[in-house]
Amino acid sequence: MLLADLATRCPVLVVLDDLHAADTGSFQLLSHLARRSRDRGTALRFLVTYREEEVPEGDARRAAVTALLRQRLAVREEVARLGERDCLAVARDAVAGDAVAGDGVAGDGVAGAPDGDWARRAWELSLGNPLFAVELARGLAEDPGGAGTGRAPEGVRELVAGRLARLDPDARRVVEALSVAGGEAALSELLDVAAHGLRPPLAGHSAAEALERAVAASIVEEREVVVAGRPEEGLAFRHPLVRLTCYERLSAARRRGLHAAFARAVAHRRPDAVDTLASHYTRADDPRAADYLRRAAERAAGLYANDTADRYYRDLVARLDVDAARARLAHAHVLRRMGDYERAVEVLRLALAEFERRGEHDDTVHTAALLAETLGKTSAPAAARRVLREHPVTPDTAPAPAASHHLARSLVLCVRGRYAAGAEATRQALAAARRVPGTAGEGLIARAYALRAANLGLAGRFDRAREAGDRALPPAEAYGDPTLLGSVLSTLRENARRAGRLHEALETGSRALALAEHSGDPTAAAFERANLAELRLLLGEPEPARALAEQAVTGAEPYDAWCFPYALTTLARVRAHLGETAEATALLDRAEKVAAAHGDRQAEHEGRTARAELALHARRPEEALRALDGHRADAPVLAAWAELLCGRPADGLRLARAELTRARRTGERLAEIEARLALATCLSRLTRTTEGARELARAESQARTLPYPAGTRRATWARQLLPPPDEKTTPPPPR
């Protein structure tokens, strides 16, 4: 025999692939050769691959393999799925081979891209199955956009269809029912569907045997599934592409019927499974879908699963048999929390139009307020003012919508820089909110006090801002909403910073950041990171400040929302502190444009002061004064330093003394130290050396006591300016 003769000269290995495609005679021949090789001690071996699921139980071919294993003539090796690197290699080789063969599957650019998106997608979808990887690679290379269609490539569909066709009708019907469940299902629910949802029904031993045949064919597998938080016996497809292909092959009528059957089974066994029921009722086109979509959306929103809630609300408002206006209102809250303000504006405009059409005054005023707030967080403050003017509060307006209106007006005024008017609007909001009973009233009161604190603080009335901020916390905690509590803590963080309690501010800001992340609000999280970065800078920790500021910019940039200019300005301050002047200047240029586009006066102020700080550091006081032109009263300490360095210490003294008086009256410890440092240096330059030294010593003592490391550094620099005023050089301000 040829193989035996070859084996006498050297060891021979015969490789046989896809043995499952061979007939019984071929299996018997292989068994004969294996026994003969053992008996004669011939160096002849066989490496055989086959898919066990293709050889059913009771088949003579399976018996032949079992006999070889029992006689120890064969060793069984399970072939694991490919890892990512090997799967990518298989995908590339398959596509490159087709291109070389002239099949026209892939062009040179695709075949030559070792880690192209199509290859990586083939790995992700195949889960390491080499057969699927090859077909996916070919399909995706030919049509790279096909991965997003939700359909398996044609080659995969043909492979799976062939395997499904080999199932008997009952096993195939059970597998089709499982495909509707979404890939896995509890055994009890699947048997319910088989008994009551299939036509003809499949129950008892017949259903169990059909499932066993599907498992034996390696289409599905028995697997523990979690149902209502408890593990149960279940079944699942062995590969998601098999499930997808099976589901695609069903007619629309079959899908609806099976989804309805699953909905009945789930409603009977676990009526609180609103997500599952919403999915099945929607796909069954059942009128009950609206109620379950609403419940599923509200549940997801309550868990801050914002993306899921967004999807449910979109499905809900698309149905004609629901109150779309109220659903849109709830949807807008989720979108705002996601930082998707543009979509929130669109949804709120539709809700507002519907409420107006129905003549529902209170809902109209409330929705207009929410729309104005949302517009205020985008680049449309003028549109926000117009919405509020067009939908005013009247004597007939209920307290809750009236409070919402005044709160929105306060926010819009704050964005415009009209802080005194904004604080007055919160007084009107408080008057209305106190008439709203229950936790809803607590939430409105907390928002009113938080906004009042923000407006008063920005107006320089820190003493009153501190009181308002403290009064916001108890109702916010009673209301229990993380988004509201996070915004109140953000206000308290700023109050603690102004009071010089930097470590307390850091702790409070960290709590606010955690709540923003918990609620899924990326813009609030970016804002809190920017503020924490500034605190780290004040504490003399530039590297943690850099990391936080960079994260803030990364988190805010995709949304181009209200927090973006603040994040850019903070990163610019950090870069300036680290000596990266060019990068800081570029960031401030961007921040200035974004703030102007948003119409945010406070963001513009932050950019101006940061630019003035940068100019002073570069010893360009005239440039600092130009940056503050028309706004020197808003940054008196910076203006004082600039006047001093321009050779006008008397003007600097006047500005610094006024600011010191204000800061001491309101209790702003950081502002007091900064003003005292400028005052001391101006006094020294005016040859009032003793007074200057005394004020400088007081500032240094205050900075050490707080502690305030940034103030201590600035005091060291100021002390270098105390020699006689005819000194020719001036050291740069500290970073």
From TrEMBL:
**Region described as Disordered: spans on this chain:** 694-735
Entry keyword Nucleotide-binding: yes
SUPFAM superfamilies referenced in this protein's UniProt entry, alphabetically: TPR-like (SSF48452)
Q: Which Gene3D superfamilies match?
A: Tetratricopeptide repeat domain
Q: List where this protein forms a coiled coil.
A: none
Q: Record's InterPro entries?
A: TPR-like_helical_dom_sf (IPR011990)
Keyword list, A-Z: ATP-binding, Nucleotide-binding
Q: What is this protein called?
A: LuxR family transcriptional regulator
What organism is the protein native to? Streptomyces evansiae
